[in-house]
């Protein structure tokens, strides 16, 4: 038997081997929380305290769940496939599929990712003639999701004014629409499961008895409903149900904007009467200076449960700080340092570039691309979020559930088949009148529109019939052809990439089948026999028949349904997957739980990080500081911090001060690569940002500088005099970038210093 416990320290060992009682492991970043949680599962199984099916473990991302399963199979000689380890969404999906009838859902219900949800809401607002200036679709979506995250249905909400009353009404209509179409959004997955378990006593008791040990990672980021869900399943403290083992770090709570409630940690301690509170303070990830920086920074937060981190790793290197003139030069510097790291033997996948918002990535991406350094961006459009892939998925969804109106609308006229807005309006009216799905309403439409629509229905029915006995990869291939998506993109100028993405879906389906343990040849659709005999029925004392969750997945979810859920859940997961031999670029949020030898934290400017929205929100700066703490603690050996004096964001040039976080970091942990005072291009002169008019002798300096280094940007030269309609006359003092990215910094004297995009600005030579 493998000794699972030999590589744990004393506190970790105590945590792993706690008796079967509620426990909270409160510990800082890199102290081995995730390791403790995984090892505890292995230990519980190895010592025979629980069988693998008695475990329910919740992780924050699909990727983390997979990793946990891989680690478990390395530790134990068991088949981990089928274990209940996953995200809240993934686990709920599985429960709802198994008990779809009790949950009042069609077996083939489909999951709306955020993008689909937004279009469903837009559609609703239009149908209801709602002014979308007054009720922007996004606001309505946040309202609905916010309510669901708190466990509230429309009828639970007491509106406090007319606007809110309208939103509540829309919430109800939206829920009705989803129910009609057989679709559920992410928040609904949780709420529906919660309602199912709280209303259905036999079912609840069944699962309470089944899951003897419930373990949750990243507990600080659970929202109210997730916490209620855990409480319900664990029979509130283990009297009737399982034992809850939660690990988390209050300093890493970074999802308040999505409803996460760090207060769940203290609520858990109180409500579950937690006697076992273990703190882990030894950090195994980062070198000393990095850890010091993290500790000192986070000490500025007032609301903390209190803990510290120490390391035996020694000080290591100081954090390198760089002040750039602009976002472009920040990117160039990142490229230079990256090259040095690679030259010194660093693996590209051990270099991470982190930023606060996605919009910052473009400039860095461009620089990496130009330098020929492979990189991978996370949080941008993922495979299952790309338009062509979503089109193909919509066709597949219609194979499984033609009443999914979102899928129907996405592809009814894509590729174009002469079904215009008018036809859709007529169809929508018929659907409303008969209260049926768009698909079911087609026979009610007459005339030319009716004929085209009937043609579409025929295509769907025909393909469905043809693929009846086919395995999933083959079905995907036929759908790509019959839908004419492939031939459509073949005629597009830049369609080659899209075709490649579409073809990848066949391999994605093959890979999915083997990962999920379906036979490669299993029919993609669920046959009627399989539906009738699904699963192992368990009869409890009340004679109530319960389909046990151990029912082979293949009998509760057809390969097609399973694949479609997988696609939606992947599309909604904003976590990075690492491992590729490429520089890893991601937002700080997506970096949670990950670690890298070398980390860049970029754009450390007021307004960006901390983000400007934080000044408006209660607790905003503290949340940003936690985010910075998460960012710092991703690094093992080397950490770079950078900021830029000017930055082009959303088409505007911003002049930013460096982030307040620099003042909060311990000075001796920092190594300034540029002088700590603001730097200029003129070798130590106070600053080009004083906006002092550049005339006379200053102008001479600019000229001298220009003589030394002449850069061209669309024919412009440093030192050249120019005129601008609004700012008057000025002198170009610097040019950065080239081609369409070229920008000039121009001193307009009285009008001050400006950075203008040379491809846009109207400048005359004088
Ligand atoms: P985060 O808060 O970022 O999620 P965490 O507390 O979950 O971090 P882990 O990811 O579990 O920390 O561990 C951090 C690193 O330290 C990992 O590389 C892990 O393998 C290593 N580690 C944890 N415990 C030990 C130990 N006792 N001995 C050696 N290495 C350890
Ligand atoms: Mg972790």
UniProtKB/TrEMBL annotation:
Pfam families: PcrA_UvrD_tudor, UvrD-helicase, UvrD_C
One MF term in the entry's GO annotations: 3'-5' DNA helicase activity
One Gene Ontology cellular component annotation held by this UniProt entry: cytosol
Source domain of life: Bacteria
Gene3D superfamilies: 1.10.10.160, P-loop containing nucleotide triphosphate hydrolases, PCRA, domain 4
InterPro entries, per database record: DExx_box_DNA_helicase_dom_sf, DNA_helicase_UvrD-like_C, DNA_helicase_UvrD/REP, P-loop_NTPase, UvrD-like_ATP-bd
UniProt cross-references to SUPFAM superfamilies, sorted A to Z: P-loop containing nucleoside triphosphate hydrolases
Keywords: ATP-binding, DNA-binding, Helicase, Hydrolase, Isomerase, Nucleotide-binding
Binding, ATP: 27-34
Catalysed reactions, semicolon-separated: Couples ATP hydrolysis with the unwinding of duplex DNA by translocating in the 3'-5' direction; ATP + H2O = ADP + phosphate + H(+)
PROSITE patterns (UniProt xref): UVRD_HELICASE_ATP_BIND, UVRD_HELICASE_CTER
UvrD-like helicase C-terminal domain span: 288-593
Domain UvrD-like helicase ATP-binding positions: 6-287
Class of this enzyme: isomerase
Biological processes annotated in GO: recombinational repair
Protein EC: 5.6.2.4
Family membership: Belongs to the helicase family. UvrD subfamily.
Family annotation (PANTHER family): ATP-DEPENDENT DNA HELICASE SRS2 (PTHR11070:SF2), UVRD / RECB / PCRA DNA HELICASE FAMILY MEMBER (PTHR11070)
Protein name, UniProt field: DNA 3'-5' helicase
Protein species of origin: Duganella guangzhouensis
UniProt lineage: Bacteria, Pseudomonadati, Pseudomonadota, Betaproteobacteria, Burkholderiales
């Amino acid at each position: 038997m493998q000794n699972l416990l030999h590589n744990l320290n004393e506190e970790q060992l105590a945590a792993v081997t706690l008796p079967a009682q509620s426990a909270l492991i409160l510990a800082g970043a890199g102290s081995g929380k995730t390791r403790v949680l995984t090892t505890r599962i292995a230990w519980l199984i190895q010592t025979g305290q629980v069988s693998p099916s008695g475990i329910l473990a919740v992780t924050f991302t699909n990727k983390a769940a997979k990793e946990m399963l891989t680690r478990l199979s390395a530790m134990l000689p068991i088949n981990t496939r089928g274990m209940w380890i996953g995200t809240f969404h993934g686990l709920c999906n599985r429960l709802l599929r198994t008990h779809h009838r009790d949950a009042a859902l069609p077996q083939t219900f489909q999951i709306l990712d955020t993008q689909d949800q937004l279009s469903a809401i837009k559609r609703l607002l239009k149908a209801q003639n709602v002014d979308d200036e007054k009720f922007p679709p996004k606001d309505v979506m946040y309202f609905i999701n916010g309510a669901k995250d708190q466990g509230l249905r429309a009828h639970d909400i007491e509106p406090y004014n007319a606007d809110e009353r309208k939103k509540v009404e829309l919430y109800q209509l939206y829920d009705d629409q989803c129910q009609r179409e057989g679709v559920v959004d992410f928040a609904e997955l949780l709420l529906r499961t919660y309602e199912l378990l709280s209303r259905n006593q036999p079912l609840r008791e069944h699962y309470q008895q089944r899951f003897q040990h419930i373990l949750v990672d990243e507990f600080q980021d659970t929202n109210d409903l997730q916490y209620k869900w855990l409480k319900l399943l664990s029979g509130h403290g283990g009297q009737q149900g399982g034992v809850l083992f939660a690990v988390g770090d209050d300093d890493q709570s970074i999802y308040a904007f999505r409803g996460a409630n760090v207060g769940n940690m203290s609520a858990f301690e109180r409500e579950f009467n937690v006697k076992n509170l273990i703190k882990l303070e030894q950090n195994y990830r980062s070198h000393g200076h990095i850890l010091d920086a993290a500790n000192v920074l986070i000490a500025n937060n007032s609301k903390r449960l209190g803990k510290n981190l120490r390391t035996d790793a020694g000080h290591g290197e100081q954090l390198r700080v760089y002040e750039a003139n602009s976002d472009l030069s920040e990117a160039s510097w990142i490229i230079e340092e990256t090259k040095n790291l690679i030259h010194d033997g660093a693996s590209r996948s051990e270099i991470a570039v982190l930023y606060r918002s996605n919009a910052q990535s473009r400039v860095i991406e461009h620089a990496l691309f130009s330098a020929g350094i492979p990189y991978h961006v996370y949080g941008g459009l993922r495979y299952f979020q790309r338009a062509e892939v979503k089109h193909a998925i919509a066709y597949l969804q219609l194979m499984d559930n033609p009443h999914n109106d979102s899928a129907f609308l996405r592809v009814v006229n894509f590729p174009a088949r002469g079904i215009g807005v008018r036809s859709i309006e007529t169809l929508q009216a018929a659907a409303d009148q008969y209260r049926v799905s768009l698909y079911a309403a087609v026979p009610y439409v007459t005339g030319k529109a009716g004929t085209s629509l009937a043609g579409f229905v025929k295509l769907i029915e025909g393909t469905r019939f043809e693929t009846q006995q086919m395995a999933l990869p083959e079905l995907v291939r036929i759908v790509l052809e019959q839908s004419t998506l492939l031939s459509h993109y073949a005629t597009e100028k830049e369609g080659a990439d899209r075709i490649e993405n579409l073809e990848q879906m066949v391999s994605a389906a093959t890979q999915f089948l083997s990962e999920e343990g379906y036979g490669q040849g299993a029919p993609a659709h669920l046959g009627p026999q399989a539906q009738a005999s699904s699963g192992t029925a368990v009869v409890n004392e009340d004679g109530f028949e319960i389909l046990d969750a151990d029912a082979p997945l293949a009998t509760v979810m057809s390969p097609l349904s399973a694949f479609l859920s997988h696609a939606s859940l992947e599309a909604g997961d904003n976590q990075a997957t690492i491992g590729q031999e490429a520089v890893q670029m991601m937002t700080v949020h997506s970096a949670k739980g990950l670690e890298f030898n070398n980390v860049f934290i970029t754009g450390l400017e007021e307004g960006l990080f901390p983000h400007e929205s934080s000044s408006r929100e209660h607790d905003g700066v503290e949340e940003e500081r936690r985010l910075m703490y998460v960012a710092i603690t991703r690094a093992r050996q080397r950490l770079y911090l950078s900021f830029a004096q000017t930055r082009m964001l959303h088409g505007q040039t911003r002049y930013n001060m460096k982030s307040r976080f620099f003042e909060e970091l311990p000075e001796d942990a920092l190594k300034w690569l540029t002088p700590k005072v603001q730097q200029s291009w003129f070798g130590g002169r106070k600053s080009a940002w004083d906006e002092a008019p550049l005339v006379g002798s200053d102008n001479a300096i600019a000229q001298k500088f220009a003589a030394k280094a002449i850069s061209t940007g669309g024919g412009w030269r440093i030192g050249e005099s120019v005129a601008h309609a609004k700012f008057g006359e000025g002198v170009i003092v610097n040019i950065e970038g080239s081609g369409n990215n070229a920008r000039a910094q121009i001193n307009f004297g009285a009008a001050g210093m400006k950075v203008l995009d040379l491809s846009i600005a109207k400048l005359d030579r004088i």
